[in-house]
Amino acid sequence: MKKSVLFGALTVTGLVAGAAQAATLDDVKERGELNCGVVTGLAGFGAPDANGVWEGFDVAVCRAVAAAVLGDPTAVNFVPTTGQTRFTALASGEIDMLARNTTWTFSRDTDLKFDFAGVNYYDGQGFIVPTALGVSSAKDLDGATVCIQTGTTTELNLADFFRNNNISYEPVPVETNAEAQQQYLAGACDAYTTDASGLAATRATFENPGEHVILPEIISKEPLGPLVRHGDNEWGDIVRWTLNALIAAEEFGVTSANVNELAAAPGTNPEVNRLLGTEGELGAMIGLENEWAKNAIAAGGNYGEIFEKNIGENTPIGLARGLNAQWTNGGLIYAPPFR
Amino acid sequence: MSDTHAQTVSFVRESMIPQSEPPAGNRGAVLWMRENLFSGWFNIITTLISLYVIWWALSHTMPWALRGIWDASSLSECREIRDATLPEGTSAACWAVLTDRWQQLMFGFYPRELYWRPVLSLIIFLAAIAPVLFPHTPRKALALTAVSPFVMFWLLWGGSVWFPVSVALGFVLGWAAWRALAPLAGTLIASIVAAALPIIYWLYTAGPLARELEQAVSLSIEYVPSQDFGGFMLSFIIGIAGIILSLPLGILLALGRQSDLFIINKISVGFIEIIRGVPLIVWLFTASLLLNYFLPPGTNFDLMLRVIIMVTLFAAAYIAEVVRGGLAALPKGQYEGADSLGLSYWQSMRLIILPQALKISIPGIVNTFIGLFKDTTLVVFIGLLDPIGLSNAIRASTAWNGIYWELFVFIGLLFFTCCFSMSRYSLYLEKKLQRGHK
Amino acid sequence: MTTTSDAPKAGFRPSQLIYDTRYRSLTIQVIAFIALMLGLSWLVSNTIANLSALGKDFDFGFLGQRAGYDINQRLIEYDSASSHGRAALVGILNTLLIAVLGCALATVVGVLAGVLRLSKNWLVAKLMAVYVEGFRNIPVLLWILLVFALMTEATPQPRDFREGGDASMILGDTIAITNRGVFIPAPFWGAGAGILLAVFLVSLVAIFFWRRYAHRTQEQTGRILPIGWGTLGLLIVPTAVAFLALGMTSGRVTQPVLATGATEGMTLTDYAASQQTINACAVPFSTESLNLRRLMRSQEIRFNYVAVEDAAGALAALEAGNCNVLSLPASVDLATVPAGAVALSDTIRRGMPVEFERPVLGGFNFEGGLQLRNSLIALWLALSLYTGAFIAENVRGGILSVSKGQTEAAYALGIKPSRTMRLVILPQALRVIIPPMISQYLNLTKNSSLAIAVGYMDVRSTLGGITINQTGKELEGMLLLGLFYLVTSLVISSAMNLYNASVKLKER
Known about the structure:
With 339 residues, chain A is α/β, with parallel strands linked by helices. Chain A has 14 helices and 14 strands. In chain A, a hairpin with a 5-residue loop joins strand 2 and strand 3 (54-55).
C-alpha cells in the first residue's frame, strides 16, 4: 500500500481515506510505517545525520513505538515539523504521534484536543549569559536584552517571569535555535532563554563553553513528552505504555544487551516476565504481539540507555540525569506497574 | 569656400604622409581607462570609491574563503586544524561541511544509490521543454513533452509504472470523448463530458485499474516517499511542477479575464487578484494548516503534494497575468482576421491567438519561474527541508552545530547559478522576439 | 433594414441554449456560476464538518483574550497583558512601517542603481550590474538572513562601548551603532514647540510658493532662479532662527529637584550616595522627566523610574513613599510640596522648545533615545536592496526606452547632463517605469511577511504566528491575515494606479 498516499491524492480516490481518525493502530499496521512528527533539527533530540538517518532522544521514542507496533524500528516516516505546524499536523492525521520536545500544558491537552502519553524529559526554562556580564541570578537581568525562540511556551513564561518580578527586559524573538545561537554569540542579546536541556546542548557546541554560564533559576516547568490525538484511546495506550516499558526496563535492569536473553525464557522477576511477554498476555490487551515491549527495548535500549546515548554526560550535550533519574535514584521518572 | 581658399595657399602637400599611431595617451588600454574610468573629476572620484568598495569586500571575504578547510568531519575538528596550521586569531571557512553534506543539500534524504533517477528526470525535463523553447525542433517531439510529466513522476517517486499510466489514460479518455462527441452533440456538451468523464474515471476506476494491471504485469521500481525529498531537488520539483501544472489553468484564467462573459470574467479577476494580493507564505501556511479543513473529513495527503497544489494555484495567477500581457500585445487584426474566417472562439484561440500570444509570453513565463524557484525557499517555514531547511537540520547535528556562513554561501551560489542562467536565457529570448517582430 | 428578412420568429426552443450563440454564453455563465457555488458550498460544508469533528468553533473571541507575550518593536502601547487583537494591531502597524520605509528606500536605491548602471564609468556600471544580478538571482529569504547575520557580526556590541572597549559613539556622542540597533537622540517637546512647528509649516508653504514663482519666472523670462538653494534655505533658516530666538527669549527656567530625607544644600550625588535606591517620580514624555533623567545619567546615578500621571500624582507618590526623588515644573508652587521633601542644590536649567535625549550606556544596553532595532534595519535594508535591484532594471529599461535623440537634442541646447536627466529623460521614462514599479511595491509589501526570519514582529509573526500558535485558531487567524494583505495590496495598487493615470501621456 505504499503507493497510495500520493497517488491516491492524485486520483482523489485516496482522498476518501475513510475513518483515518478512528483507529490509528490499524492505519499504521496497514501502512507498514509509523508517521512520527519530529523537530526540524535540535541537537541531541532529533536531527538527521550525514546519511539522512534521524537520531536523537525524541526520535528514539518514535523508533520504540514503531518497533512495538510493527516489530521494525526503522519503519518510521519522520515528518519534520516546526513549532507552528506541529499541532495541525497531528490534528489532521498527517502524523500518528508527535515526539517533538512539546510541553504538556492544560490547554494543549484539553482545548487543542491532544493526549499526552507521558513525560520523557522533565525540563524547565533557564537562561544562559556570558560570564563576563557578571550576572549570577535571572533577577539581575533588569533591562537586559533576551533572545527567545518564537512559537513556543518559552515566550509566555518569559513574559510572566519578568512581569512577576517587576523588571523590564527587551525580547528578541528568533525563529530557530541556530539563529538564536548566532545572535547570542555575537552579543546581540545579553541572555538566551530556552529549555535548560537546549541551553546545555547549545553551550556544549560553543567555541569557548567556559565563557558562558547557565543561571540557576529555572523559571518554568516543562514536562516534555510524546502526544497523540484525543479520542483514539487504544493508540494513546500503545504510545503511553511503550514509553512506560522503556522506563520500567531501566528500573528492572533490562537492557538492549540482555533483553533477548531475558525474553527467551521466564525469569525470576514476574514483572519482567510480564513486560517481556514470557508470562501473561499484556500485548494482546493493547492489540499488539506479546513481544512488543521486547522489540521496543531492543530498538534503542531502555530509557537510561537512550538518555546516555543521545544526551547523556558522555555526549557533547552532556546532560546530567537530575530530575530525569529513576524514582529509585531520586528522580521523577516512574513507570506504573506492568500488571 | 575651401576651393577658393585652396588656391590662395602657397604650399599644398602633394603626397599623403603615412598614418601614424595616436599618441601613447590616446590609444589602447590607456585611452580606454581615460575614457571609461578617469574622464573627469567626478568620474575619478567614483572610480576611486568603487575600487575601494571592491577592495574592501574582497579583502574581508577572500582570505577567509581561500584559507578554507576542506577536510574535516566536524566543526570542532575544523577549529583544531585551523588553530594548528594557521596563526592565532585568523579566521578560515570550514568548507568541510559541504564535502560532508553536499549530497543532502542537493538531494535531501533520497537514497544514494537512486540519485540517477532525479538526475535523469531533470534531463528528461530539459529535453521535454526543448520543443517548446526552440522552434526548430520537430513538432512530433511535442508528444514527448506531453508524456514527460508522467515519466518524471514515476522516476522520482517510483512504485508501479501502472499508476502514472492509468492517470494518463484519463487524459486520453477525455480527449477521445471530445473527439467523438464534438461532431455529434456540439462543442459545449462535448467539453462538459470531456471534463467530467476523466474525473469520474480518476475517482472510481483509475486506482483499481492500476492495481489490477500491477497484479497482472508487475512493473515497478523502488518507491521513495515524499519525506525523503529535500534540498535543491525539492526546490526544483516544486518550482517545475508549479509552473507546468499552472500553465493550463493560467491560460484559462487569462482567457477568462479577457472574456466578455460577465460571470466568467469576474470569477477570473477575483481569483487572480485574491491570489496575487496575499503573500506566498500565507498560502503555504494555508496549505499546511488549513487545507485539511477544506477537504472531506478524514482526508489526508502528503504535505509536499499540498504545497505543490498551492504553489500551482499561486503560479497560475501570475502566469495568467503574463499570458494576458501576451494576448493584449497581439494586434487587433489577428482577432478580427480569425473572426472573419468564421472560426469559433476556441478554434481561433487554438489556431491563431494562443500560439502567438504564448510565444511572446515565454520570457515572462521564464521570469515567473525564476521568481517561483526562488520563493520555494519559503517552504522552510512549514517544515519542508529545502536547502535552507536542510541547513538548519545540518546545524542541529552535533558535528556541525554553530556553522553559519559556509552553508549560506553555497546555497546562495547555487541559486545564483540557476537563476542567472535562466534570466540570461529569457533576456536572449526577449531580444530574439523583438527582432522577429521588426 | 427592410431588405433583409427578419429573423425567424419561431419562438424559443431549449436547444437554442446550446446551439444559439446569443443564448449559449448565458448557458455557459449559468453553468460556471452553479459550478462555483457548488464548489464553495462543498468547501464550506467540509470545513463545518471538520471543525465540529475537532470540537472547534468559528469565532473571533480570541482577539479579546490576553495575549501573554511581549513585543519589542511597537508603535503603540502594548504589553503582555494586552489582548491578541492589540497584538495584531501592533503587527499591522509594523508591517505598514516596514512597507513604507522599504518602498521609499527601494525607490532611491533602485533609481540610483538604474542610472549608475548606464554610467559612462565602466567600473561603476559593472559594479551596479553585479549588485543587480546578485540580488535578483538569490532568494530574498537568504538575503534577509545574510544581511541580519552580517549586521550582528560586523557591528560592535553595547559592551564594547565601555571603558577599554574599541567602539565609540559617533557625532559627538549622540548616535550609537550597535548590533542591537542604532540608538539616536529622541526629541522631546518643550515650551514654545507649537510656535516652532508653526514656523516650520509656514516655511513649507513659503517653499511651495517660491518654487511656483521660480517656475513661472523661468517660463516667462527664461531666467533660472536658484530653486534648490532657495528651498534649502527656506527649509532651514526660519526654523533655526525661531529655535534660537525661542531659546533666548523663553528664559532659562530653573527646575528644582526635590528629594525626601535629604538635608538642605545637598547635591544630587551626595544624596544618591546616602540612599540605597533612587526611585524617581516623573510624568512620562514630559520635559521635566527628560531633564531629570538626563541630570541623573550625567552623574552616573542608577535609578528606578516611577511613572506618574501628573504633577499632583507625583506629589502624592512622593508622600506615599513610592519614590524619593522628584522634579516638578517651575510653575508648581513649592508651598504645596509635602513636608520632608527638600530641594537639592542641583537644579535643572531648561527652556529650549525641542530638546533631545541622548542615548546613554546603561547596565546592559543603551538607555534613552530612540532605538532603531537591528531586526527592523536588517529587514529594511534587505527588502530595499532586493526590490531596489528589480526597480533598477525597470529604471534602466525606462531610460533606454527614451530615444537617444532626446538626449542629443538636450545636449545640443547646451543643457547640463544632470539637468538633461532630470528634466528631459526621467519625465518621459517615468511612464514606462511606473507600472512595473507598482508591482515591485506590492512585492515588497508581501515580502515583508518574511520578517519572522529576523524576529521582526510584523502581522504575520503576531497574528499569523504566535497568536495562532497559542490559541489554535488557525482558520480565523489566517482569514484575518489574508484579508489584511489583500486589502493592503488593493489599496496600494489603486493608489499607485491613480498616480500612474496622472503622469500618463495625455492622449487626445
